[in-house]
């Protein structure tokens, strides 16, 4: 399955020096695990449609400060496990939660926090 999904690659410019291109992906219902690249949006609203993995882009120390935000819009108790490119789990985003992940000065993904929200 392709990693492309609606809205994620609409603006194909690579991230700039501040790594904040401000692109948002539309809400997406996944049918498989998802692997992101730095060309994808940085903010995602995902319905995992079952337990899913989201793999963050490959990064280096030069990407320090780059981030990804992943919101879990599941209709049921479905978790999203967020992993780095090597397959190491960084955090789990449960239903009605949003996780924020950033690249530290050593070029490794870190969990900034998990935030709970309420669906309107």
Features:
120 residues; mainly beta; Jelly Rolls; five-stranded mixed sheet; 9 strands
TL;DR?
The chain has strands spanning 28-29, 34-35, 43-47, 52-55, 67-72, 80-83, 89-93, 97-103, 109-116. It has 120 residues and is mostly beta strands.
Helices and strands in order, then pairings?
Elements: E1 28-29, E2 34-35, E3 43-47, E4 52-55, E5 67-72, E6 80-83, E7 89-93, E8 97-103, E9 109-116
Parallel strand pairs: 1-3, 2-4, 3-5, 4-6
Antiparallel strand pairs: 5-8, 6-7, 8-9
Describe it.
It is built from no helices and 9 strands. It is mostly beta strands and 120 residues long. The protein has a single domain, classed as Jelly Rolls (Sandwich), CATH 2.60.120. The strands form 2 sheets. A 5-stranded mixed β-sheet has the order 1-3-5-8-9, with no helix packed on it. Strands 2-4-6-7 form a 4-stranded mixed β-sheet, with no helix packed on it. A hairpin with a 5-residue loop joins strand 6 (80-83) and strand 7. The chain is globular.
Tell me the fraction of residues in β-strands, as a range: 35-45%
Averaged pLDDT: 84
CATH top level? Mainly Beta
Determine the number of helices (DSSP H or I, runs of at least 4 residues).
Answer: 0
Give the low-pLDDT segments: 1-20
CATH topology: Jelly Rolls
The helicity comes to under 10%
């Amino acid at each position: 399955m392709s990693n492309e999904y609606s809205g994620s690659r609409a603006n194909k410019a690579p991230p700039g020096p501040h790594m904040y291109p401000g692109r948002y992906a539309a809400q997406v219902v996944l049918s498989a695990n998802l692997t992101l690249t730095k060309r994808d949006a940085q903010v995602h609203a995902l319905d995992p449609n079952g337990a899913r993995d989201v793999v963050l882009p490959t990064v280096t120390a030069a990407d320090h400060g780059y981030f990804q935000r992943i919101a879990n819009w599941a209709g049921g108790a479905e978790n999203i496990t967020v992993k780095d490119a090597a397959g190491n789990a960084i955090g789990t985003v449960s239903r009605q939660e949003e996780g924020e992940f950033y690249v530290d000065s050593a070029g490794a993904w870190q969990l900034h926090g998990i935030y709970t929200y309420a669906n309107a």
